[in-house]
Amino acid sequence: MGPLPSLLPSWRPTLYTFNIESLFARKRASTSPRTVFANQSLPDHFFDHKRRALKALVHPTNQVISSKYTIITFVPRNLLEQFRRIANIFFLFIAVLQFFPEFSTISPGVVLLPILVVLSITAIKDAYEDIKRHQSDRRVNHSTVRVLSGPASSNPNFSGTKSRTFVRGIIPKRTPFHSDPESAAPSDTAIEFDHAHHSDLLPDHKTPNVYWSKTLWEDVRVDENVAFVETKNLDGETNLKSRNASSALANLCTAQDCASTLNPFTVECDRPDTNMYKLNAAVTRNGQTSPVDIQMVLLRGTVLRNTDWAIGLVLFTGVDTKIVLNSSSTPSKRSKVERQINPQVLINLAMLALMAVVCGIADSQIEKQLYPEGAPWFYGDDYFLRQPKHQRPYHLGVCAHHNVVPISLYISIEAVKTCQALFIYFDYDIYYKKTNQPTLARSYNLSDDLGQIEYIFSDKTGTLTQNSMVFRECSIGGAVYHGDPEGDEDLDVKKRTTADRANSRDSSFGSTSPGSPTIDEDIHPPALVRLSSGVLRHFSDQQLRQDLARAVNAEPRSENEAQARALNGFFSVLALCHTVLTAVDPETGAIEYKAQSPDEAALVQAAADVGFIFRGRDREVLMLQTPFSKEIERYELLDILEFTSTRKRMSVIVRKLNGHDSRLFLLSKGADSVIFERLKSGGDEFKRTTERHLDDFASAGLRTLTLAYKVIPDDEYESWSERYHEASTALEDREKKVEIVSEEMERDLRLLGATAIEDRLQDGVPETIADLKLAGIKIWVATGDKLETAIAIGYSTNLIADDSNVIIIRGGDAGLSVYQQMARAVEDFFPDADVLEKEEVAGVAASESGPYPLRSLNTSAPSIVGEGNGTRPGGYVLIIDGTALSYALSDDQNKRLLLYLGTRCEGVICCRVSPLQKALVVKLVKDGLRVMTLAIGDGANDVSMIQAADVGVGITGEEGLQAVNSSDYAIAQFRFLKRLILVHGHWSYARNGTMVVNFFYKNIVAVGALWWFQIYCGWSSAYAFEYTYLLFWNTFWTLAPVLGIGLFDRIVDADILMAFPELYRYGRERTWFTLKLFFIYMIDGVIQACYVDLPVAWR
After folding, report:
1. Strand, coil or helix: what is 704?
2. Is 547 tagged catalytic?
3. Per-residue model confidence as pLDDT tens digits over 694-741
């Protein structure tokens, strides 16, 4: 016994982390960085002493299996999963007791029937779902792909063996036997050559040594410069994206070249990871090393579009691919009603134990009194020799009263919630005709949670707004251009647009193909640039047209020369600093831009509208048509410094190729906060003017962007390019090293101006937010826009009312710290609060703030919120930026103060926040207040927030389907959220709560009658009714009324719930399902059981 205590601690981690999936999951070996070899033999250190491949260097097969079960594992695994429910274990225990004669009260088969029905229905559902997974796996794994084949082609890299399901394992595929190796060669239909008519090249129609042959997708093994792909299967985005070929391998365009031993190369890759936007690798050929990043890789799941063909080298296969590594299921969410049922089931089990104990005690007392007198003990006995056992009445009591726990409760709830999801699906009032999209319940078990929401966390762009852009205003060289009023656009543009769309058969034109210019320079420019997807209108400004006309005709060293440089530089940056693709209508010659985001398309579209037309890309050459040049200007694209959420800017380095001008330019665009701190000293008046324009743009609710540039000396670029190449080819910490080197180049910039884009609100957003506030729901908005833009959006959406008081918390200031700002806000706006005394920080703001009054600091800036802030009759709204939020979420003390300040406000707007901060804010409120939360968003950056909330809602918008795929409910418009919550949520919560307590009520009536009958049968646990009748009571006679309540009960009609949002408070206050209500129904059932038992006792 001595070693036992020492062994227990080692088992604890295993017990705590144990799950059923681990019993059946195949353990995967740890991954390591890999090297892929082509056209050369593997090094000796890849083999062991027996010349066998090292296991760590064997790559997995390309086969992917997402199914859970096989024929062998289905029964044990499914039963283990179902018996995680304590109710199923309990009823199985009762059924087992019936097989022992001393505990039997009824036929074991009759007792087993209910539990078998429940297990069978659930198993059939699980089996059907898994069959669909098997079919999906087969479609993917058996899709065909062309691979390099032939006698002269070999693959030196090692791949593992494919897994087989049980069916394929016992029924092997029959293949014909070939005595002649040549007869086993692939058929002509399975071979594809580099040329359409290979018979012209090969005499006697002989098969060449190298060709492309069709094979199954699961058999794929590690074996022009631009392609266009669609990544909807990966991130949900429907916009086309460009992928570039590695310059080191761009000349390998035929099967012969790819298989030639004269072209050996290796690709060193980092270990597989889940980051969809990062891949660090390097290709080495002829002693030269070139970087490989995500821009040069086609991930598994991407679809090739507008590209005839692409040749690729497989780097990762099967379970090592990013789509499989990211294929973990959405976090399992259980509704609050379902979580509350478990304690009530335990209460019923305790009640059952009490009944059994009472039966045992009463029976023992009767036994002591009557058994010595020689009384027959059991029904039908005529002698008293059979000795009773004192424990038998207790076990009989458990068996007789076990129906106090409703066995059909869980499966009934699942059935009801499935029907409620269908009610949502078929609700025509939340059906979007424009896109033919109904509201979809992706998680059937959360319908009642919709009726208890207290906090809503919303994204702004694409959620509250349309994510359809309009280029409204711009500031260039200190002059602001507001654009012509809507409706006063150039009529000629409108006419040409209408005519062009009428003549075009398809808006999906052929994209720029590698190796050929978009438009030949000898052809006249196209008549127009068609509106891009996600851009609502062309940009036009009468004053800008006049200024451009003067600038084009400006003489050197004239007063218009500076303005000409500013206009030319500004719109050249707009037209060149991007990743936009061009598509040309083959009939009309019209250009349409294909961008990864609508705001990027709006910028390039605006440049084209004023005459700076981006004509496309020929390999690494960008072509631009401008009013300042009669010829198409050409720029060599040297480097792209990508936009990231950390950098908040994008830059390109280009070299001008026209004439004798071969200067190098750095063109940058980004947030004003990052661009201004990198500007060259001087020009303070110009900077202040641009900042004022930016504030005006943001105050109008527009999205702003700042543009800058600089001329790079050749020697500076050469030295920097070497460092950048070294950083970009690093396999470890590549992003950090690239950021450091990029920072060196993005300095001493020259300011050009700023842009302002409007992202219009969706229909019904202000009215929806106003009604949700009337329902008592607090709304928090998280956005990446700057503070002034966030405030303007708050006013336009009714989140901030005209009489609201605004509290502003900013980070990164030299004045008060974030904690001091929050403490000052509490002291000034909520003087009756005692939170500061509890935190023992009373007076911290007054003692450390200095001589400045409160309202001259961040907590209430008059220039932003106006005069009278703090004394208005309305409520309070908190505005906090991302920098301040980082400090506020850094420790528990800051979190408590932020939580208190936020909950005292009727709304909160978080601006300049990252996706992670969105999720942390949701968790702060959810865990800190233990309230029901809902998060709604439309983009991939909202996924973490959606999954962190109790209920996640995804909007199908312009940013793809990733948010929808991770959500519990999918809607098309934000305004549909009102009916989803106020009507369907209210109904579902009221119905489910009433149904559950009636379930317990109906069971306690039957069990209560049996319990009262024990008084008249000597507490022998005898049945008052035939057991079959009791079984029918639970499954037929009383089931339909309870299910009817869950499906059709309407406390209030939908039109009343929509007209009076205040009625939603009954859900927020947990009126329909509480422990108090549970006990009321249970007591009522016990009392009514007396009346049921009276006829039985008096007969």
Report:
1. strand
2. no
3. 988 888 878 889 999 999 999 999 999 989 888 887 877 777 888 889
